[in-house]
Design brief:
The complex is a heterodimer. Chain A is an alpha+beta fold. Chain A has helices at 12-20, 34-39, 75-80, 82-87, 89-96, 101-106, 109-114, 120-123, 166-171, 189-192, 273-279, 286-297, 308-325; strands at residues 5-8, 25-28, 47-50, 59-61, 67-70, 175-180, 183-188, 211-217, 227-231, 242-251, 254-263, 270-271. Among the domains of chain A are: 5-53, Uridine Diphospho-n-acetylenolpyruvylglucosamine Reductase, domain 2 (2-Layer Sandwich); 227-326, CO dehydrogenase flavoprotein, C-terminal domain (Enolase-like, domain 1, 2-Layer Sandwich), CATH 3.30.390. Chain A has 13 helices and twelve strands. In chain A, strands 4-5-8-6-7 form a five-stranded antiparallel beta sheet. Chain A has a four-stranded antiparallel beta sheet with strand order 9-10-11-12. In chain A, helix 11 (273-279) packs antiparallel against helix 12. The longest helix of chain A has 18 residues, at 308-325. Chain B is of the alpha+beta class. Chain B has two domains: 24-98, Ubiquitin-like (UB roll), CATH 3.10.20.30; 108-174, DNA polymerase, domain 1. In chain B, strands 2-1-5-3-4 form a five-stranded mixed beta sheet, with helices on both faces. In chain B, helix 2 packs across helix 5 and helix 3 (125-138) crosses helix 5. Classes of the chains: A alpha+beta, B alpha+beta. At the A-B interface, strand 1, helix 1, helix 2, strand 3 and helix 6 of A face strand 4, helix 3 and helix 4 of B. Chain B: Residues 24-100 form the 2Fe-2S ferredoxin-type domain. Chain B: One of its GO terms (molecular function) is metal ion binding. Chain B: It holds the Pfam family Fer2.
Chain lengths: 331, 175
């Protein structure tokens, strides 16, 4: 790791002003990605501004049945919160299925939104990588890309977005609050994550020194019976090959409302809008689920190594929708 | 929330004082004892414990947050000391495996690891024990499946997992 200097902030305004004033400074929260990437020389800030003392740890129930989660609430705290478990089980499930107990005590919710990709070519600090070194090329396109994305990819980057909890937050139309050089901003979560396109080094619409301060989750009654399912190579402590967050309401055998988002298969947390559209008003049966899943993955762009993900994502979607609409059929 | 602060774009001086990159004096509270040492801000808590404070209980396995051998508690919560900067632990309470026994009396989990033969090479054991004690406090040891899931951040390359679970069960059932 290169030498770094350190400052500790106790007020949001101080932290923001300090980082804004210095292009070589970055915020430090839980550090679970950042310290790792500093040690690998993937990130090269001159100074870290420790934000862990900022008063951003609240997990508040909102009058509309929603939540406001401070950016420095830890993953383990949010997973444990009664309001999250009762009203947004898919959020609690996604958190508990991520990382390990130790990492969940360290990692902050804001940091989770800002985490970097797990692509081995990004992380090795030497291979050509358009995310780390814009214009240098993408080593994953012709490389070992079994874990890489099949949706939202470009010819410049196919790195999978690694977050679990961002997937249900995407299904819930969460909003990300920031403080920065131009004051408070609120981003719909779908706008907070950028597709790689021709600029994979730009992952968020944030300015330098703009700090995530909280995540707002609007109330959604049907989320009380929502679920998150994660499929991976080993049973625990592993990133998703495919994951699905879903909430669904059935009236008289037909789907009257549905929220669906995918993880592990896309370059950003992926709202399955095509599938949602097909499911609205459709009978709540396996055929509808399969058709909707097929439609969502029709745009998949695969490589020989990750082609299985298109099928896996569809099966996971069908499985989750079956479980939510016909719980008696599941073992 | 407070009104947004809009700093001047022309501001040259940082608002916050900067420490480092050369070694700076920091004070850590480790196992209830205040320790003062000089470290560069980039030094991990793990390296500070092992290389500066001669507390070699926490082990360096991967040094990248994947193996759990470096598990310690900060403010009572199990964390990975390899991904924690020492300087960020000022004003927080650090507990290591060296702080677990009461004098010559081993912690119940340490005794259970010995009784249940819950290790072979022993390298991961301090991390396993720090994690296991925290696991019981967190209340996620109701059955073997839950113990397995909530201990998954501690890798044992000798695969002593069944015996580690037996040790956890033993202590769980003592209380």
């Amino acid at each position: 790791m290169r030498p770094i200097s350190y400052s500790r902030a106790t007020a949001v305004a101080d932290a923001v002003a300090t980082v804004v004033a210095d292009p070589t400074s970055d915020f430090l929260a839980g550090g679970t990605t950042e310290v790792d990437l500093l040690r690998q020389n993937v990130l090269l800030p001159r100074r870290l501004v420790d934000i862990n003392d900022l008063p951003l740890t609240q997990i508040e129930d909102r009058p509309d049945g929603g939540l406001y989660i401070g950016a420095l609430a830890r993953m383990s705290e949010v997973a444990d919160a009664a309001g999250v478990q009762e009203r947004f089980p898919m959020v609690a499930q996604a958190l508990v299925l991520g990382a390990s107990a130790q990492l969940r005590h360290m990692a902050s919710m804001g940091g989770n939104m800002m985490q970097r990709v797990r692509c081995g070519y990004f992380r090795d600090a030497t291979s050509p990588c358009n995310k780390r070194d814009p214009g240098s090329g993408c080593s994953a396109l012709e490389g070992f890309n079994r874990g890489h994305a099949v949706l939202g990819v470009s010819e410049h980057c196919i790195a999978t977005h690694p977050s679990d909890v961002a997937v249900p937050l995407m299904a819930l139309d969460a909003r990300v609050h920031t403080e920065g050089p131009h004051g408070r901003q609120v981003y719909p979560i779908d706008d907070f994550f950028l597709l790689p396109g021709e600029t994979p080094h730009l992952e968020h619409p944030l300015e330098h020194g703009e700090l995530v301060v909280g995540i707002e989750v609007p109330g959604l009654p049907m989320a009380r019976t929502s679920m998150y399912m994660k499929v991976r190579d080993r049973e625990s402590y592993e990133f998703a090959l495919a994951s699905v967050a879903a909430a669904v309401t059935v009236e008289d055998g037909a789907i009257s409302d549905v929220r669906l988002a995918l993880g592990g298969v896309a370059t950003k947390p992926w709202r399955a809008r095509r599938a949602e559209e097909m499911l609205h008003g459709a009978p709540a049966d396996t055929e509808s689920f399969r058709r909707a899943a097929r439609e969502e993955l029709a745009a998949a762009r695969t490589t020989p190594l990750n082609a299985f993900k298109a099928e896996l994502a569809q099966r996971t979607m069908v499985r989750v929708l079956e479980t939510l609409t016909h719980p008696e059929r599941q073992s | 929330m407070s009104a947004p602060h809009i700093p001047s774009k022309a501001a040259a001086a940082a608002v916050l004082p900067e420490r480092g990159p050369d070694p700076v004096k920091i004070t850590l509270s480790v196992n209830g004892t205040e320790r003062t040492l000089e470290v560069e801000p980039r030094v991990s808590l793990l390296d500070a414990l092992r290389e500066r404070l001669d507390m070699t209980g926490a082990k360096k396995g991967c040094d990248q947050g994947t193996c759990g051998a470096c598990t310690v508690w900060v403010d009572g919560r199990r964390v990975l000391s390899c991904l924690t900067l020492a300087i960020a632990c000022e004003e927080h309470e650090v507990t290591t495996i060296e702080g677990l026994a009461e004098g010559d009396e081993l912690h119940a989990m340490q005794s259970a690891f010995i009784e249940q033969d819950a290790f072979q090479c022993g390298y991961c054991t301090p991390g396993q024990i720090m994690s296991a004690v925290a696991l019981l406090k967190e209340g996620h040891a109701s059955d073997d499946a839950e113990i397995r899931e909530w201990m998954s951040g501690n890798i044992c390359r000798c695969a002593a997992y069944p015996h580690i679970r037996a040790a956890v069960r033993t202590v769980r059932d003592q209380t």
